[in-house]
From TrEMBL:
One of its GO terms (biological process) is L-proline biosynthetic process. This is Pyrroline-5-carboxylate reductase. It is an enzyme of class 1 (oxidoreductase). Pfam families: F420_oxidored, P5CR_dimer.
Length: 274
């Protein structure tokens, strides 16, 4: 599979790390980014080809991943559109941008239909990502399979019929690793304040997230049951959870996740109106 990335920043680098040598040889990956430092690192690490600006090399790929910020997407589409119009085959365009709707991207690409909109997350870097995906009108069955193979190579895929749900995916799993790191940071800090070294406290917090996430993944029980099994009556967990409830932590988290979804919709409205 020949893949071109437009944008070689954080999320592209995470995807490339998971893809190179696993889904396709690094030499089959081409990355366009104006920052030489980012490209040099990717080139050195994975042996891929790079360019500072979009040119015809991009359309030689079967899959073109648009991995620029949502605010740059329209300009990128304007540059890409005449190049796509020149090629005989229709490369699959995969957008990972938060908010940008497939219909707006299609319009910016001159009515192009072979678009998959998806929302990956950074654990793709270690092959443990999860990606929500939706196919636009002109995607062939073979292209859908190709998109699935690409993203299944860096973790789990979840296809959605309703593109409107991608903002929810963005809020839960696209942004989600940041919430987990935030929670881990707080747990690490508390451990240090209680006398552990930063390394000890980090190992305990990280190991706890890894173990609890794996347990939740393997268990048939609801999360609330798993939580209750940790919570001895009158014990330490009860003291912590009572403190969290009093501080409104659960409400704060659900409100925060909804704020992420609202921002996704807002980006789609703002940028799609152009
Ligand atoms: N980070 C994450 O965890 C996730 C991000 N996403 C989505 O991925 C996209 C990229 O995010 P992220 O990687 O975090 O952002 P970054 O800013 O790290 O990466 C974007 C890169 O694209 C470059 N760029 C800008 N314009 C062009 C252009 N015309 N051609 C080629 N490259 C260009 C940027 O350069 P410069 O900085 O100089 O502008 C930058 O290096 C966003 O749309 C985001 O919504 C989706 C899921 C998760
Ligand atoms: O923060 C953002 O907008 C991007 C989308 C999901 C994760 N990072």
């Amino acid at each position: 599979m020949k893949i071109a990335f437009i944008g070689g920043g954080n999320m592209a680098a995470a995807l490339i790390a998971g893809l190179a040598g696993r889904v396709t040889p690094g030499a089959n990956i081409h990355v366009v980014d104006p920052n030489p430092a980012a490209l040099e690192h990717l080139q050195r690490e994975y042996g891929l080809t790079t360019a500072a600006a979009i040119d015809a090399a991009v359309t030689a790929a079967e899959v073109i991943v648009l991995a620029v910020k949502p605010q740059n997407m329209r300009d990128v589409a304007a540059t890409l559109q005449p190049l796509l119009a020149l090629v005989g085959h229709q490369p699959l365009v995969v957008s990972i941008a938060a908010g940008i709707r497939a219909r707006d991207l299609s319009r910016w690409l001159g009515g192009y239909g072979a678009i998959v909109r998806c929302m990956p997350n950074t654990p793709a870097l270690i092959g443990m990502g999860i990606t929500g995906m939706v196919a636009y009108d002109g995607v062939t069955a073979a292209q859908r399979t190709m998109a699935d193979q690409m993203l299944a190579g860096v973790g789990t895929t979840m296809w959605l019929d309703d593109e409107g749900l991608i903002d929810a995916v963005t809020a839960v799993s696209g942004s989600g690793p940041a919430y987990v790191f935030y929670f881990m940071e707080a747990m690490q800090q508390a451990g240090v304040e209680l006398g552990l070294t930063p390394a000890q406290s980090l190992a305990l917090a990280q190991g706890t997230f890894a173990g609890a996430a794996a347990l939740a993944g393997r268990s048939e029980e609801p999360l609330s049951t798993l939580r209750e099994r940790v919570t001895s009556k009158g014990g330490t967990t009860y003291a912590a959870l009572t403190s969290m409830e009093a501080a409104g932590v659960k409400d704060a988290v659900t409100t925060a996740v909804k704020a992420a979804a609202a921002r996704g919709r807002e980006l789609g409205d703002e940028l799609g109106a152009q």
